[in-house]
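INFO  loader      accepted 1 record
INFO  loader      residues=425
INFO  predictor   begin
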Amino acid sequence: MEWKNWQNTSFKSKDHLPSYSGIYVVADKDDRVWYVGQAKNIYLRWQGKSHHRYPQLNRSHKKFNYTIYYHPFPLEKLDEKERYYINSLNPELNNSEVKQYLPKVPSLEEEIKRILKVLNKPNSLYPTVRSLILGQYQDDNNTIHVLCLINTNDYDILQNSATRKHGGLVRNAWSGLYEHSNRIIGWIDTPIYTMSGYQFEFYGGLEVINYLERYSDQRSRYLEKATILGIDVLMIKDLTILTLSKLPLEDKLKEKLPLLENKMNTNNQQESQTQSEALVTPSLPKKMTRWLVNVEDVEVEICKDDNEKYYVRHNLFWYIVYNDKCPDSVGNRVMNTLKDIVNSRLSTIWWAGYSFKFEELEFEDGLITEAVLLPLKMFEDFLNYFVNYHYPNIAQTPNSFGPSTYKIYQLGKWLQNNSLEQFKK
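INFO  predictor   done
INFO  writer      dumping tokens
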């Protein structure tokens, strides 16, 4: 327990560590040693969140109450002393994998709800009217467009969502977005956020917002309270506000006004309460159940919807074939690849015309995600095509292929004589 006599500081007070070279020991309140390391400058090694074990230790500090013990040693002795203390103290983490903690990626619905909540939160500049919902209309493809007016400052909120490093699903939901020029990101078109058949479009409406913020008597005439996805918003109930003098509008927004006016004329024939209820309410995620089965040492996830129809997610196909559990829908050309297999690769016409689409799914264990659902038989056809096309000689020379590839082959061979349909029972 020699290290117990070393100088020390609490884990949360690591900024008090010295700047000399030496060995440090991280131990908990029960004197169990968790990590041993060396540093040419102990202070710099632990500065900020630079230490590779900091996220892991920080998460469990409240439970274990870590202390950092340290002792000076010359540079030429660091390797020798580090080996000595690791061998003698046998720390918990030195020979373990460094855990990576990724931020929680929001679902598409969670993200647009967060944005709407922020855009409708009063601030010092806009204590009453910060953003507005113009209304909604449905196009010929049954996509519902929700039109929003925002002020200039709040474009940063959309930009942060569209450029978030850990939210690939969210980033791909944005279109008409931004460009990189001299390391500056700027909008080049109308910010549009798409989810499950709905499209939220954001237009500059600074003059309209300022007008209604300034003249309280006009707010009761032109505005009403409504909700979208349970979020309180302000909605324009009389589009004549947009035709007032000195209230310029974007040209693209002007093209949408006739569509909104047709919708509003229909709504005006109903009660005021009915108008609010007619505001778009995007459908909830499709409820699904799922279970995992092992076929020839391959983990297979089978999903079932409320109509007793069985599927696998496209993620499973990508995981088995490309070793990628969460393919990027744009970068990996998910939709184009699936369509190409049906149209150009499969010998059967059975799946011709199948409508591939990303759907928002919610499983009984709480997972909410977006995926393309592949019927069980389609998945089997896809996998058989992949094995027969890419590995026609694998049965004769199995040792020339990696173990993961051979598992795919084994699963494919199993499917030739069996079917995942049997697991429905």
